[in-house]
Each structure stands twice: as structure tokens, then as C-alpha cells.
Amino acid sequence: MDYDILNKLPVWCKSQGVEFAILCGGSRSAPLTLSFGGYNEIRCIAANDERSAGFIALGLAKASKKPVVIVTTSGTAVANLYPAAAEAFYQNIPLLIFTADREPNAALHFDGQAINQENIFGKQVKGFFQMPVNITDSNLFNTNMLAAFELLYDGKPGPVHINFPFIEPFYPADYPFVYDNFIVPKLYKITEPPYSTTNSVIDELQPIWDYTQKKLLVCGFGSDNNYDKKQIYDFAKHHKIPVIADVTSNIVTDLYHTDLLIRNIQDIDLFAPDLVITIGGNHTSKVLKNYIQTTNYFHHWHISPFATEYDFFEKPIENTICTNFLVKEAFEINVSQQDYYNVWQEHSNKGKEAFNTFIKNISWHELVVVKNIMENIPVGAVVHLANSMAVRWANIIGNPQKFEIYCNRGTSGIDGCNSTALGMAMAQPHKQHFLITGDMAFQYDSNAFFNNDIPPNLAILILNNNGGNIFKLIDGPTAIMPLEKYFANKHGLTFEYLAKHFGLDYVQLNNHTELETHLYRKFKKTSIAEIIFSAENYKAVFDQYKNLKF
Ligand SMILES: Cc1ncc(C[n+]2csc(CCOP(=O)(O)OP(=O)(O)O)c2C)c(N)n1
Questions:
Q1: Which of 87, 370, 388 to mutate to test the pocket of ligand 1 (most atoms within 8 A of CB)?
Q2: Same structural domain for residues 271 and 394?
Q3: One domain for residues 479 and 391
Q4: 158 and 18 within one domain
Q5: Given 302, 319, 351, which residue is the final one in a domain?
Q6: Where are the alpha helices (DSSP H) in 154-222?
Q7: Based on the structure, what is the number of domains in the chain?
Q8: pLDDT value at position 405?
Q9: Does some domain include residue 471?
């Protein structure tokens, strides 16, 4: 094994900003593990379950805003990274996936932990690079690394996979290594994001801006990823543009309870936008997506640092525009826009009143509990929402704008919610993190806590409604039996023993006072607070909310 070459790997990564590496156990990956493990300038975290490790890496990358390395052994270990790779791809999070592999054709001989790893992540990664067996050619090594890093940074960030086949012996005679200070070759082919809208583009947009009088800003997932949220807010305020913001957008808005507002629109033309400006990613609310899709013709501009974007509303994006677009002075103020703003604002005020009256009468339900949690989580904390109803309840309520909110909405899986929150908490030890999750999502990813580096600053709130109750709110499965068995997976479990098993604090919260006291505690250890719900009024309250009229 040429350790002189492999030991350049962490030096390469450090030079490109990498701060964290997740190392998963295995002998074939020992050359990679040892080269990172002996290098003090990247913090290495060990993890056993590769599926969870991939999501911890995702969380670390989200929080550090730097690419994160994952090292795994060969075979199914690699396959277990697939969900995190997909989530990273759709969230534009840079991950460097370094996998060990056996010699070519090992899978054909049924050797242990051998599968075909070539391009295993397919279109869920930005690219795949194959190193030769026991790489010895440092020029080739550098060429592959350069290409991998250039791809990582070219356009939208995302995961990149580099496969390293090794044959024995894997372990060096001397360890730890001495790392030489070689000069990392300079990356060259990088398209610098964010690109800027030129003045000529602004000139082109100007006529549409001037004649449209009902501009609507729609902020999706992670709208603050590439832009300053204050700048977005100021821009909208300055031009009197109503802002519809997903709870995961982290953008401030004066409009609350979007679904409720949309369901209560009577005069369609009055509310219909003539220019929709979008920013950020996907939306939690299907009601909103349907509304935008069915609104009659509008212009659609999308603000993004990247030239290519997904079209969430299945309507063509006329223009992808950028950065200096948000300079409020770039456009004239359009006087009629104030009327349109007022229409939405008055509607929102009425909706807020109706929602508050409605919720005041419900004493114990996930919707009220999530509202209470959102109101009482301390300012400056970081909140993670698991997929399924946690993110949906929060979106119904709206972001109180006291803290940042994160959720894996790239692919909306329930498979990595704990690990992603854990990764972010590890990277931000100075901030208190809260995860609001369902029982199934929590159980799914419980291997996250099989880790020696569990930080003290993660407080988990499990909404235990005895299964995947989202299926009870959807019309399809409700009508078809056996709902409980095959969709909801009713289990009758609580998580006290699981908490004990992992050495985490555990408490059950039975009323609002206990909940509020819990949220203001000084957390000294990762903790689980379990809130148990009966099936009693679960769907009834949701239906009442859906049918609320004002
Ligand atoms: C990896 C993955 N498998 C399956 C699903 C489909 N799914 C969506 S929600 C859900 C149940 C989640 O239950 P729970 O976490 O208890 O939340 P609740 O629905 O009760 O709010 C399932 C299985 C998914 N989103 N991701």
C-alpha cells in the first residue's frame, strides 16, 4: 500500500475546507480510515451504521457549510449510503464519499462484502471517480482528486463518490503517519456561484416588473441558503410584495397559515398573482403547490445562484435571476402593489383570528402541542423537524422567526432525521438543538445514538401517536383496511428503554406546563422527551382545521 499517496487525501480535503470526516468501521477501508484518523486537522467521528453515518455527515455539512468526508468499507456498507447521498443531492449539500472496494470482479466470485460499486449512486451523485487498485501513481491520484473537487464545486453543490479498490495487506508497519506538507494542485475550472444578474438582464425584466401589479414572493425550503434573509425581507417590504414562506424557508413573513388563507380565497382574481417570484426549494404544503399551479397565467421568475433549477410548480420558469436582483433600488416602486399587499394582509389577519379561536378550544392534540413547542423554544436555538406530520404541523402554524428551522425535504425520507439533527448539533456545540419527530421516524433512525460522540446539546421531542399516523389523515388509506397494520404500523411502544440503552436522559411530558418547563431547562445531556397521544381526536381536529371557514 502506498501510504505516501493515501496520506495526501486528508491534506487535499483540508485544503478545500473540509472540517469533518465520518469514519465507518471495516478492514478494507483501513488505508483510508488510518490516513484520516491520524490527521489532526480534520475532526474524525466514528459511526457504525453507514445509513446513519451518511446523514450525520449531511448534518455536519449543513451546519459547517463545508464539504464533509465519509469513509466506508466495501459492499453493502457502500449501498447503505444511498439515502443520504440522495438527500444531499436534492438539498445541494457537498459530501465526499470515499469507499473502499475489492479488486475488480470480486463480486463475481462471491467474495465477502463485494458488490458492484461502479457508479453505484447513479444519478444521486454529481459524479463517480474510480481509482486503480492500491493506487501508486500520484499523478493519476491528483488528476482524479482535482476532477472530483472541481465537480463538487462546479454549479450546485452535491455529493461526489470516489471508489478506492485495495488488496491486502491493509495495515502499515508504522502508525501514526507523518503528513508531508505537499502543495495541493490548484483547482481551476470552477464556475463561481453565485452568479449575478447583469444590468442588461435587469433592463430586460424591467417592462414585466412595471406592468405587473400583483407580485407574490413564494419562499421554499432553505431560501436563506444562498441569500441573506434580511435582504429578502427588506426587498419584499420595500416593494410591498406579499410573502408566502414555507416553515423551512427561514424567511420572515407577515402572512400566517398559508393553507387556511388559500382555502378561504373566494375572489380568485383578486388574489391571483401576475408575477410569481420564487426562491429556495420545495414546499411542504400541497395546498400551496396546487394553488400556484392552478392560478391562471403569471410570469414566474426564480431567484437562484444556479442557472438550472427545479420547477416546483410545474410551470415554466421564465427567468432564473440572481443576487443583485434583490437590491431593492434596482426596480421602481409600483404603486398598485400596495393594494395587492393589503388584500393578502387583511385576509391573513382574518385567518389568524380564525385559527387562534379554533386552536384555543383544543386542549391536547399534536397541532396545539407543536404550536406550544414552537412558541416556547428559546430564541437562538436550532429546530429540526422530522418528516411526516412534525414538519406539516409546524408549517400549518408558521415559523415564529425566533430560530432556524431545518428538515430533510430533499427527498422527505424518515430515515435520517435523528442523524442529520445529531450531525448539526455536533458541528454547533454552542447552540441548543431541538428535534421534533414522530415515533416511527425516531425509531427508524435510532442507530444515530450508537455513537461515542453524542453531544449534550440535542433535545428530542417525540410525538408518540403509536405509529405512522399521517396515513390516518390521508383519504386513500383511511378508506382501505387494514390501515393500522400495513400503513400506520401500530406498535404500542414507548422509548424509555431505548433512551436507557443509549444512556440518554428520558422524560414523559403529559401536559402543557410540563412541556414548557422542559423547554426552558438547561440541557446537560442529549435527552428524549416523549409526548404520548391517543388516537381519540387525531383526525377530527385535522378535519376541523381543513374545513375552517372565515
Ligand atoms: C425512508 C422512508 N420510508 C417510508 C416513508 C413513508 N412514510 C412517510 S411518513 C411515514 C410514517 C411516519 O410515522 P411517524 O414518524 O410516527 O410520524 P406521524 O406520521 O405519526 O406523524 C412513512 C412510513 C418515508 N417518508 N421515508
A1: 388
A2: no
A3: yes
A4: yes
A5: 351
A6: 199-211
A7: 3
A8: 96
A9: yes
User: Which pLDDT value is given to residue 193?
Assistant: 47
**Residue 357 forms part of a structural domain:** no
**Ligand 1 atom at minimal distance to the Cα of residue 437:** 15
- Are 81 and 22 contacting, i.e. CB atoms less than 8 angstroms apart? no
Tell me the torsion sign for CA atoms 144, 149, 150, 156. positive
Rounded to an integer, what distance in angstroms lies between the CA atom of residue 468 and that of residue 490?
8
pLDDT at 184: 86
CATH number at residue 238: 3.40.50.1220
Q: Cβ neighbours of residue 485 under 8 Å, at least 6 residues apart?
A: none
CB 298 within 8 A of CB 275: yes
User: In terms of residue numbers, what domain contains 144?
Assistant: 3-165
- What residues are in contact with ligand 1 under a 6 Å CB criterion? 387-389, 412-415, 438-441, 465, 468-470
Q: Say if 368 falls within a structural domain.
A: yes
Please check whether residues 444 and 503 belong to one and the same domain. yes
User: What is the rounded distance in angstroms from the CA atom of residue 54 to the CA atom of residue 88?
Assistant: 9
Give the H/E segment covering residue 428.
none
- Residue recorded with cell 447503505: 80
What local confidence, expressed as pLDDT, does residue 194 receive? Answer: 47
Supply 137's cell numbers: 501513481
pLDDT along the chain (550 residues), means of 10: 90 93 97 96 97 98 96 98 97 96 82 91 97 94 94 89 95 86 73 54 82 93 87 91 96 92 96 91 92 80 74 68 66 88 97 96 96 95 97 93 93 97 98 98 98 96 95 74 78 96 97 96 94 91 96
Taking 3-state DSSP, the helix, strand and coil percentages for the chain, each rounded to the nearest 5, stand at 40, 15, 45
CATH number at residue 102: 3.40.50.970
- Clarify whether residues 379 and 523 are in a common domain: yes
Query: Which three cell numbers, joined as nine digits, stand for 365?
Result: 392534540
- With b for 16 or more beta-carbon neighbours within 10 A and e for fewer, the 116-148 pattern comes to ebeebbeebbbbbbebeebbeeeeebbebbbbb
**Which of 323, 351, 379 corresponds to the end of one domain?**
351
The minimum-distance atom of ligand 1 relative to the CA of 470 is 19
CA distance 502 to 520: 24
DSSP 499: H
Domain membership flag for residue 174? no
State in Å: Cα 163 to ligand 1 middle.
Answer: 32
The reply to whether 237 and 295 lie within a common domain is: yes
Question: What is the grid cell recorded at 91?
Answer: 438539498
pLDDT, tens digit, 9 for 90 and up, residues 240-263:
999 999 999 999 899 989 999 999
Please tell me the distance from the alpha carbon of residue 326 to that of residue 197, in angstroms, as a whole number. Answer: 10
**Measured in angstroms, how far is the CA atom of residue 418 from the centroid of ligand 1?**
13
Residue 242 and residue 289 in one domain: yes
pLDDT at 273: 94
20-24 and 215-219 beta bridge pairing: unpaired
Residue 115 CB partners (closer than 8 Å, separation 6+):
74, 75, 76, 78, 79, 107
